[in-house]
Amino acid sequence: MRSGMFGNAVSISHQVIARVVQPGDTVVDATCGRGKDTLFLAQLVGSRGRVYAFDIQDEALKSTRELLNKNKCLNQAVLINANHSQMASYVEGHPSACMFNLGYLPGGDHSLITNSKDTLRALSDCITLLAPQGIVSLVFYPGHPGGQEEMESIEKFLSGLPQQLFEVIRASFLNQINCPPQIICIEKLGGGQL
Ligand SMILES: C[S@@+](CC[C@H](N)C(=O)[O-])C[C@H]1O[C@@H](n2cnc3c(N)ncnc32)[C@H](O)[C@@H]1O
Q1: Which of 47, 65, 148, 186 is deepest in the core (most CB within 10 A)?
Q2: How far apart are the C-alpha atoms of 189 and 142, rounded to whole Å?
């Protein structure tokens, strides 16, 4: 099946992030998995920039390291074997973008999934660290166990953010079958703190 100009949920988040991130920026991949998003971010920030990439699985960090190395992007990456709920202890500076591609490791253990408690902690710290005009993207997979509940708790948190400080949008493929992924993007509007 030919895909349209929007592609898929992850490519929509890439399109939004690519509009904002500049060479030399600091950015975060909260769930590096097989490293595709980390590579995308590393190519955007270039050799003068920095990507902090988190995952709780050695297998994910290994895959990410190999992919970055193959594409000569390892120098600008800091790969961190830690829960993204600890993001604030690791990230220096103010990221212009942060990606949360949630769920489980493709081709890995499907029982090791992101969860609402840790995702909420990470997201809350992330929007505080974020640079003004910075973007956070989240891709949710409501079709797997726990995915719907995680999405609903994040939506509840984001619905309460003050609109003068953050713009929050949601996108989805309304006519796709089988619980398609959902996208939320957040822009930090000014320098104001919560
Ligand atoms: C859908 S995959 C990410 C895909 C990845 N961005 C890519 O481009 O391949 C989700 C990842 O989140 C990781 N994960 C689950 N809970 C986590 C947590 N609390 N902190 C950090 N990573 C977590 C999983 O191990 C898995 O690798």
Answers
A1: 186
A2: 28
Domains and CATH numbers, the chain: 9-188 (3.40.50.150)
Q: How far is CA 148 from CA 4, 36, 103, 167, 175, in A?
A: 26, 24, 11, 22, 18
- Three-state DSSP string of 59-87: HHHHHHHHHHHHCCCHHHEEEEECCHHHH
Q: Are strands 97-101 and 26-29 parallel, antiparallel or unpaired?
A: parallel
The DSSP annotation for 45-57 comes to: H-TTSEEEEEES-
57 lines ligand 1 (CB under 6 A): yes
Give the model confidence (pLDDT) of 24-62 as tens digits.
999 999 999 999 999 999 999 999 999 999 999 999 999
Please tell me the distance between residue 160's alpha carbon and the centre of ligand 1 in angstroms. Answer: 26
Q: Which two tokens stand for residue 140?
A: 């949710």
Q: How far apart are CA 144 and CA 151, in angstroms?
A: 11
**CB distance 14 to ligand 1 below 6 Å:** no
The CB of 112 under 6 Å from ligand 1? The reply is yes
Each residue's pLDDT tens digit, 129-157: 999 999 999 999 999 889 999 999 999 99
Taking the whole predicted model, whether its pTM rises above 0.85 is answered as: yes
- 88 Cα: distance to centroid of ligand 1 (angstroms): 17
CA of 32 to the centre of ligand 1 (A): 5
